[in-house]
Design brief:
Blueprint lengths: L2 H14 L1 H27 L3 H12 L2 H12 L2 H18 L2 H30 L10 E9 L2 E3 L3 H10 L3 E15 L5 E8 L1 H7 L5 E2 L4 H4 L6 E5 H8 L9 E4 L2 E9 L1 H7 L3 E3 L15 E6 L5 H15 L13 E6 H6 L2 H33 L1 H9 L4 H37 L13 H26 L4 H6 L8 H37 L10 E7 L8 H16 L4 E7 L10 E6 L12 E3 L2 E2 L1 H7 L3 E4 L13 E5 H7 L9 E4 L8 E7 L14 E4 L7 E8 L7 H11 L5 E6 H7 L2 H35 L1 H9 L4 H30 L15 H27 L3 H7 L1
Helix pairs in contact: 2-3, 5-16, 6-14, 6-16, 6-17, 7-12, 14-17, 14-19, 14-25, 16-17, 19-25, 19-27, 19-28, 20-23, 25-27, 25-28, 26-29, 27-28
Length: about 900
């Protein structure tokens, strides 16, 4: 045990047995004094009374000796701390209004900080649930500082054959597929993985085993891993899941293991079937995620050089299908890749809660200063009775720390509520839903409380340490803690509150303006009365284009025959929220120079009725027809934005391109131009190249149905038709497009709401601060105001005097805060849409809002001042 802990324990033990020790000390001292008295009488011949006095002087006096003994035990400071705590409790209980308001204000700041700390701890500070997660990397193709994309099968197999810096490496590919454990099939998230993934992550199964290299071989029996939650849902008991059969995309897979909870949360899937990769015919497509573990002693820079060499080695092999020699396989920390821009979003929250906490501290510090000013006589009396400056300082700081600790208790409760709000509104932040208020969060709240108490208690302490103040305290001067300096300090706190509140208001205003602009962005289609239903066909029963097209040849006519159905078409992505597959291309009449990256565009696969159902016009050429079959020359339809980008001079129809790097394939011809549709969110691109379903059938498609009545009424009828064609096909995500359109704004709405909430709290605290300061000013200047009015001052002039005093401080705070807002709002620039971080109308509006709140807060104290009866005010004095 450390020496300082042993010493502290012994001191508390001494304090516990203080009475017994004091009695023993008294007996011992009395014995020694009597012995010394007898010795003086015997040797010096003094009378007994004088001899006893001399003996007491020799020992320094009994009381002095006892005090010295207490100092030797080291318990004086503990006893005095106990006295200070008891006095602080009585003092705060005697001022319930002050205590309740100060505690609530601090609880708001501490609670907000605790909630955000817990989120940051779960997302940024805590590691991934894998051993030595700092050695884990994910691999991308990268051809510019800002452009990364997934790897291909050719890339992965080249990495396996030639890399020298990764101890293990595995691939994963995500898909939504039909899953059945013997009952009705449901659509779930599957992650096809190679055995190297679990070796790289160093993951073991809770039950059974993980995928092994023998399972990777083409032709090996299909096996899968499942999560504990999925095993509990599908099989009842996770321990009994091993060995059971699971139908995945129409294929029977044997469950070989159940993965731990933390692992499955980060991999974001329900099941993990084995991925068996054949040798590809070309370099693309690029849709695989690859994870590796750095070998011992290997740095990220060394792995980057090694993998760049792999890229250069395999490039000539696949140059005919992939022309971009600048694209290199690049390792990135797995934590960095998983977090994405979560760190930036959380940093906005961190700044927001720190500002709220500072405003809370300034508010309470101002209240503490007012309270100290009213306790001048008490402090003066303590000084006159011998209290030292240090003891007075400790007394006031103890009171402020106790106040903050009580606030931290309420703050922890508010933090738990705030964490739920953060989890609800920050669903896109990885690992946020795993955040829990635990011991570290409580310790953080207590630490913030102690710091807040010290800062808050510094205001009254600053006056006690001023030169010459000790004499005024000793005289009991009633103005101690008041006067011009106290008024200036209280004003400084008000200025600080408004200066801190304005950046928050500015950020919230900019996000709100950005959100309103985003809401007004046209998605490029008419979402009213349109229903979308996702359909996923099992690969076993629908192995190729003939079977897939046969299903839709039976289903679509029946849907179109339903009452109230205007049209029905197919598409593989639901705009504007869905991520759309992208494809590279090379225009024949303006090819990309050799070795340079080819352009890419979103590449949805649709039917002609897709445009009809969404209300998208054909602007030039034609839409797709049944003649655009798999045996016909490849055709595409492009969006108007795409046409303007690549052919600004016009004449797009009839242009040809090489699609997907397939130089051996026939060129693809542009046969039409359609209106623009937003993809990847309303702030995303409206450039797109549309491929006809009849030339590239997918098992996963969305049915788009335009109805004459509200689309919700047609959901069950459309489902019934699809089940009549194949009752085992899972049907999920059936919803009106208008709901999905609202969902595309969800993250923008959540961030705006959260930051707006912080801004409202900051504005309210600043208004309360100036209200409290002016209320005290009116009370302190009660006699002066009465004299002014007795001498003829009009009530309007009194109101103006008080309002001018408060508004001058608010205006100064607004000026300082405006400068901070101009500099600070650049942090949220990436979150803004079509809005400058220095947008003048927004900054002007929030400044006026802040000053308006200040004016409202000034008005009531000013009215109270105007209502003072001059006769009563003078008589009271």
């Amino acid at each position: 045990m450390p020496r300082w802990i042993s010493s502290l324990i012994s001191r508390f033990r001494a304090l516990r047995h203080r009475d017994r020790l004091e009695r023993e000390l008294d007996d011992e001292v009395r014995t020694h004094v009597e012995m010394e008295t007898e010795d003086i009488v015997r040797t010096r011949g003094l009378p007994p009374v004088e001899a006893r006095r001399q003996a007491l002087i020799a020992f320094g006096g009994v009381e002095h000796f006892k005090e010295a003994h207490r100092d030797a035990r080291g318990t004086r400071w503990i006893e005095e701390l106990g006295q200070d705590l008891r006095y602080a409790v009585r003092s705060l209980l005697n001022a319930p209004s002050f205590s309740a308001s100060a505690t609530l204000v601090l609880a708001l700041g501490i609670g907000a900080c605790t909630a955000v700390f817990t989120a940051v701890d779960a997302v940024l500070l805590s590691g991934l649930p894998y051993p030595h997660d700092d050695r884990l990397v994910t691999l991308y193709e990268q051809n510019s500082p800002t452009n990364r994309f997934g790897l291909s099968v050719a890339d992965f197999q080249g990495i396996q054959a030639h890399q020298r810096t990764l101890s293990s490496v595995g691939a994963v590919r995500y898909r939504q597929v039909p899953i059945s454990a013997g009952g009705e099939a449901t659509r779930g998230q599957a992650a096809w993985v190679t055995s190297g993934l679990f070796r790289a992550l160093d993951v073991r199964a809770d039950f059974g085993r993980v995928i092994e290299p023998a399972d990777d071989q083409v032709g090996a029996p299909p096996v899968t891993l499942v999560s504990r939650s999925f095993a509990a849902r599908a099989f009842g008991d996770p321990a009994r899941a091993v060995g059971r059969s699971l139908m995945i995309d129409g294929t029977s897979n044997t469950v070989i293991g159940v993965l731990p909870v933390g692992v499955t949360t980060n991999l974001r899937a329900d099941i993990w079937p084995v991925l068996q990769l054949k040798t590809p015919e070309r370099r693309g497509p690029f849709g695989y995620r690859v994870v590796g573990r750095l070998a011992d002693g290997v740095t990220l820079e060394a792995a980057q050089r090694d993998l760049a060499g792999v890229s250069r080695r395999i490039f000539p092999i696949w140059a005919a299908s992939f022309h971009d020699s600048t694209a290199l396989i690049t390792p990135v920390s797995l934590r960095t890749a998983m977090l994405g821009d979560a760190g930036q979003t959380l940093s906005v929250f961190i700044v927001a809660v720190v500002l709220v906490l500072l405003i809370s501290m300034a508010n309470v510090a101002s209240l503490m200063l007012v309270r100290a000013s009213g306790r001048a006589r008490e402090v003066g009396l303590r000084t006159a009775l011998g209290a030292t400056r240090g003891r007075l300082v400790r007394l006031l700081v103890t009171e402020s720390i106790l106040l903050a600790l009580v606030g931290s208790i309420a703050g922890v409760a508010l933090g738990a509520l705030g964490l739920n709000v953060l989890s609800m509104f920050g669903a896109a932040i990885p690992q946020l839903h795993e955040a829990r208020l635990g011991f570290r969060a409580v310790m953080f709240a207590l630490g913030i409380a102690v710091i807040s108490g010290l800062v808050v208690g510094a205001a009254p302490v600053a006056f006690l340490l001023r030169p010459g103040m000790q004499a005024r305290l000793g005289s009991g001067d009633r103005e101690v803690g008041g006067g011009r300096r106290a008024e200036l300090l209280r004003g400084a706190f008000v200025v600080a509150e408004f200066a801190l509140a304005l950046p928050l208001l500015a950020a919230a205003g900019l996000l709100l303006g950005s959100f309103l602009k985003l809401e007004r962005v046209s998605p490029g289609f008419d979402p009213s009365r349109v229903l979308s239903v996702h359909v996923s066909l099992p690969s076993v029963r629908y192995p190729g284009d003939s079977a897939i097209s046969g299903f839709w040849a039976r289903a679509l006519p029946r849907i179109r025959e339903l009452p109230g159905i205007v049209s029905a078409g197919l598409g593989d992505a639901v705009p504007p929220l869905d991520q759309v597959d992208e494809n590279n291309f090379d225009l024949l009449d303006r090819p990309v120079p050799a070795g340079q990256a080819q352009p890419t565009s979103p590449w949805p696969t649709v039917t002609a009725e897709y445009f009809t159902s969404l209300g998208v016009p054909v602007l030039a050429g034609r839409s797709f027809t049944p003649a655009d079959s798999a045996t016909a020359p490849p055709t595409v339809v492009v969006s108007q934005a795409w046409a303007r980008h690549y052919f600004p001079e016009g004449h797009v129809v009839g242009r040809r391109m090489i699609s997907g790097g397939c130089t051996s394939c026939p060129p693809t011809t542009v046969v039409g131009v359609v209106g623009d549709i937003k993809y990847v969110g309303l702030a995303g691109t409206n450039e797109a190249v549309y491929n006809p379903v009849t030339q590239n059938w997918y098992r996963e498609m969305n049915v788009f149905v335009r109805t004459a009545a509200p689309p919700a009424e047609a959901v069950e009828r459309v489902r019934a038709v699809l089940r009549s064609v194949d009752p085992d096909v899972p049907l999920e995500d059936a919803a009106p497009i208008e709901e999905r359109l609202s969902g595309s704004l969800e993250q923008h709405r959540h961030l705006t709401t959260l930051l707006g909430g912080f801004a409202i709290v900051a504005l309210a605290l600043a208004a309360v601060g100036i209200f409290g300061m002016l209320s005290y000013t009116v009370r302190a200047r009660h006699r002066e105001i009465g004299v002014r009015m007795a001498l003829g001052a009009h009530r309007t002039a009194v109101v103006g005097m008080i309002v001018r005093n408060g508004m001058a401080q608010a205006a100064l705070g607004a000026v300082v805060g405006l400068g901070a807002a101009v500099a600070g709002t650049r942090w949220i620039q990436s979150q803004l849409f079509d809005t400058s971080p220095t947008d003048l109308p927004t900054l002007s509006l929030v400044t006026l809002l802040l000053l308006g709140a200040a004016l409202a807060a000034c008005w009531l104290p000013a009215r109270r001042a105007a209502a003072i009866d001059p006769v009563e005010a003078i008589r009271a004095e």
